Amino acid sequence: MAGSSSSSIMDNLFQRTLDDLIKSMRLQLLTESSFITKSIEDIRREIKSTDPQTKSTALQKLTYLSAIHGVDMSWAAFHVVEVMSSSLFSHKRIGYHAASVSFHDQTPVLLLITNQLRKDLSSTNHFHASLALHCLSTIATLDLARDLTPDLFNLLSSSRVFIRNRAIAVVLRVFDKYPDAVRVCFKRLVENLESSDPQVVTAVVGVFCELSCKDPRSYLPLAPEFYRILVDSKNNWVLIKVLKIFARLAPLEPRLGKRIVEPICEHIRRSGAKSLVFECVRTVITSLSDHESAVKLAVSKIRELLVDQDPNLRYLGLHALSVAAPKHLWAVLENKDAVVKSLDDEDSNIKIESLRLLMAMVSESNVVEISRVLLNYALKSDPEFCNEILGSILTTCGRNVYEIIVDFDWYVSLLGEMATIPHCQKGEEIENQLTDIGMRVKDARLQLVRVARDLLIDPALLGNVYLHRILCASAWVAGEYVELASNPLELIDALVQPRANLLPPSFRAVYINSVLKVLSFCLDCYINQDEGTASSYCSNFAGRHSEMSDVKKDTETPELAATCESSTYEQDEDFNPRHSTAESSDDLSVENGIDRVVTRFSKRNFTHESVVSLLNRIESIFGSLTANQDVEVLERARNILAFVQLIKADIIDNSGQNVDKKYTQVSTVIKSIRDAFSMELGPVSVSAQGRVAVPDGLVLKENLDDLKAICGDTEPPSSSSFYAGGPHFGTTLDASSSNPLKNAESGPSNESTSLLEHRKRHGLYYLASDKSETIPDDYPPANDPKSNSNEADELAKLTEQSLLLRKKTNQMKSRPVVVKLDDGDVAPIPYKRPEPRDSSLSGAIKEALLGSETHQSLSLDKSSTKRKGKKKQGTNIPSEMKENLGDAEKLDPENLNSSSKSKERRRRGKEKIVEGEESDQRGKKKSSHRHGRHKTHQRANSPLNVVSQTPVIPDFLL
Amino acid sequence: MIRAVLVMNTQGKPRLAKFYEFRPVEKQQEIIRNVFAVLCSRPEHVSNFVDAESIFGQDARLVYKHFATLYFVLIFDGSENELAMLDLIQVFVETLDKCFRNVCELDVVFNYSKMHTILDEIIFGGQVLETSSTEVMKAVEEISKLEAASSAINLVSKSVSSWRSR
To answer: Cell inner membrane: present as a keyword of the record (chain B) (predicted)?
Structure first.
């Protein structure tokens, strides 16, 4: 005994206090983490001490370390309980603080503190009670809330304001955890609304503000009380909270709006507090948007905010505008100057808000201008904001299956421009939209292929990982719609370029597959033209695509016609000895009528040499890929190789002789390959899978947990296991890539020379320098360097012209057909607010306010002893209480209905009388007043909960 | 309601962290780090609001104020007014100033428990309870007195009891 006490004295004397701990930590003799470890060791020893002083100091240190340095303190939960139970205030405080920091719903020792809390709640020292309330407000669980509700009920009418307003605040947590507490406490809570003490009113209004957040409808009956506060109160904090409540109530009850709109406008005009004015403005634009004059007043206030010096007010002004935008676009348009100016603000919040507002203004008629301006802006802003801009353009334009896009050629080029912006990280969205447009909008495919070609051919883009997805989509587009390409050979060049090995294997596979598509198309053309069917093919083609090629014709014809002629002659000499040159030129002249078709066709006029060299090149390039590590790449490369080997010999052999019957075998092969790709792909409905019947014997809902055990045993297949399959693979591996070092050595040099070649051939060095050649004139490129310099002016111009929602006078083209599926395949229809769940809390509150007729009328009319009895019963037999709750909830709708019906009947005859009664009772003493109000609440609520019959709320407000 | 109050210095070291809904300590530290990363990237003289949904979950907003070497941060939801929260930071700092006479970071570092006492008088369970710094000071002084008295008793009683047990 003596020993332990003396050791505790030693502990006490030499124990570091919290201050010591902080000081020595700041000396930094040890590193922080080792110091903390050491301190925790000390604390673990000290906290076991029997001396309360030592124990509480240790706990204090531990709490500090936990809050500031993130040290776990869950192990000390029991010590916390011990320190809490100390009778000394200083220790108790440490204990309670530790509890509120470290306890949570699953802390086991929570069961032990109920009595301690109860004792402290009823303590005569109001600071003790305050500690307990404070702790309860953060850690109350279902059990604690249930057991302590009676004590809380007493404190709700405490004569000490210090305690009463804390008890009120705790009610929020208690209601949340234990909805049944509503039955006991709700009436007292409401009574406090009429307290003369401003602090109490602040607390109650705060609680109702939080409660109304979850289920506003339940609190409609209290509107008169809130209205009184709105009109009478001078406290801005309370007014703000009341406004928050009204913002939630007003949409539920139109006549409420009429009552509150005037006082709110009065606050806007009179108040000097910016916070209050802003809250009023927000309430008006969110919930009172039908009241014209109020909205006008609010918007005029918003305008004041927008031009304020304080960035906070500017930000909030923009924020308010974006809230108003959906219903009152005029408000945004009126302030467009300020909005556009904010796009240049140094504050990123303000920039983003203004971007949102700009996107809200976008419509069919101005989407082109706004997007162009924004894209210019994106080019010179920081990466984060750049992507913010790109993202919002993409979502706005893609909304509801490209609703606002009329000119898809323009939009597709815009997507291409986006991809070439250096900071662009929106690969996935652009990828999705490129393929999606390809499938949905037939008329956009020509432009899509052009854009894809521009992206694919540029070796610089392959270096940017964010663009890989876009390139992958481009490769798919190029392969799928190759018949629209002006120069398929160029596409093959682009697809097999050396830097394509920078792509991840899955994208590489798409590239290779596209090569197969393009190659088979080229060969098909070659063979058809040799067989003399070229022209018919050609005119077919012309028929199909005449309107599209219009655009291209003017710019390209002369130059291309020349190449066309020369190549045709060449070809004739080589392969078509049967035809004389004269005939051929006749052909040409005949075709001059559809001159553009020749133009188009000429570019894919293949000579025997070019085809053979193409085949050779493909063979050599894909030969090296047969040793690739990735299955997808490997398999597709092998497919291509096999295809090439199958036809190559035939094509080379048939160079000169046997003109008529040549290629019959090859052409059937090629035709069948073409046929495999000829089926057009379309968008797939999200619900498509649902329409597929589940085959017999397939159990979809079976629990697959058992699989875990099986999967755990088997090793995940490593990539090497794919090669173990056949000796053939093994040998290729050995042959070409057994020495990775050698490959690595030879790789880069090979690559760089071929890269140079690629660049030289296509005149590309880094980014394409002259895009005017490939991009038609009517759609100026988005990042036109000319407009870069003065986009402020540009923006200003934009505000003058396009935001007026003017009708576009000369629509160049009608909107092409966009394939949509019947059943709403994509459904990003304007987002829905999640419906507030009808919690047990709201059920309880409804009951407390309305259903009380059946349940509580007795207990209300009788004295509070009855209520106490009920309460005791509740605390002692919780299970029974729960049953009651369950019953009550089950009965609820029934009760409501029946009560409301009967009420309704009664109300008809009684209305005037009750009104008179009410006005009388206003003047009467408190108890009877309360009673009267209760009656009127019932009356008010019954119709609200049945069908919307004549609402009665305004009666209170008269 | 208010979800958290943070005070950290411009190096990102937390000086006070109070969460009004339970979060495991690792999560708390992560939040502090994320908040700091956002704050230190913001230039001077820009707005004091930050969208905190990514850091703190749905509907979370953040207001901060920069005083000398400290950031004062409030995280709250749609039931609070942004400008009022800014005022509340002002109230808190004013109170600290009254309490410590020209408050500086060191005061905040060495008065961990007093900081909490002050904060608890202003914000209770995530709700604003008192906005007058004079009222707060009154309560804080009373609590300090009570604490001092209880520990004085404690010293006497302990020395007596330990003397007896010997």
So the answer is: no
Is A783 part of a structural domain of the chain?
A: no
Q: Where are the alpha helices (DSSP H) in A626-662?
A: 631-653
Q: Which residues pair with B2 in a beta bridge?
A: B76
A219 within some domain: no
> Is A834 near chain B, with CB under 8 Å?
no
* From A104, A127, A350, residue closest to B143, measured CB to CB: A127
Complex prediction ipTM: 0.92
Classify residue A935: in a domain, yes or no: yes
A346 shares contact with chain B (CB less than 8 Å): yes
Could you tell me if A26 lies within 8 Å of chain B, comparing CB atoms?
yes
Count the domains in chain B. 1
Nearest-by-Cβ selection for B124 from A137, A139, A314: A137
- CA angle A872/A878/A880 to nearest 5° reads 95
Average pLDDT over residues A128-135: 93
CB pairs under 8 A between A and B: 159
Two structure tokens written together for A658:
């046997």
Number of domains in chain A: 1
Question: Are the CB atoms for A348 and A366 separated by under 8 Å?
Answer: no
- Kindly report the number of other CB atoms within 10 A of residue B40's CB atom: 12
Q: Which of A203, A210, A275 sits opposite B79 (nearest CB)?
A: A210
Contact (CB<8Å) A70/B143 = no
b (16+ CB within 10 A) / e for A738-773: eeeeeeeeeeeeebeeebeebbeebebeeebeebee
Q: How far is A5 from chain B (nearest CA, A)?
A: 7
Other CB atoms closer than 10 Å to residue A428's CB: what's the count?
Answer: 13
Tell me the two tokens of residue A248: 């939630």
Which residue in this structure is represented by tokens 């500017």? A314
d(CA A134, CA A925) in angstroms, rounded, equals 34
DSSP H helical ranges for B41-111: 53-56, 82-100, 105-110
The yes-or-no verdict on residue A776 having pLDDT over 70 is no
* Identity of residue A48: K
Contact call for A169 and B124, based on CB within 8 A = yes
Which residues in chain B have Cβ-Cβ distances shorter than 8 Å to A210?
Answer: 1, 79, 127
Angle at B105 between CA B104 and CA B108, to 5 degrees: 100
Model pLDDT, residue A770: 40
- Please report whether residue A924 resides in a domain: yes
User: Rounded distance, CA A172 to CA A729, Å?
Assistant: 70
Rounded to whole angstroms, the Cα distance separating B88 from B97 reads 14
Which residues in B lie closer than 8 A to residue A207 (C-beta atoms)?
127
DSSP 8-state assignment for residue A820: -
The pLDDT value given to residue A752: 61
| Type of residue at A438 | G
Residue among B14, B50, B166 whose CB faces A68 most closely: B14
**Which pLDDT belongs to residue A1?**
42
Calpha distance A515→A525 (Å, rounded): 15
CB contact under 8 A, A166 and B116: no
Q: What is the DSSP letter of A273?
A: -
**Other CB atoms within 10 Å distance of the CB of residue A45:** 13
Q: Which domain holds residue A918?
A: 840-957
CA distances A861 to A45, A121, A392, A853, A856, Å, are 59, 29, 61, 11, 8
| B81–A105 CB contact, under 8 Å | no
Decide: A202 and A235 in contact? Cβ < 8 Å: yes
- Following CA atoms A78, A80, A86, A92 in sequence, which dihedral angle do they give, to the nearest 10 degrees? -160
B127 is in which domain, residue-wise?
A: 2-165
Q: What are the structure tokens assigned to A886, written together?
A: 């369950």
For residue A119, the Cα-to-chain-centroid distance in whole angstroms is 49
CB contact under 8 A, B1 and A203: no
To the nearest 10°, the Cα dihedral for A445, A450, A456, A460?
-140
CATH of the domain at B32: 3.30.450.60
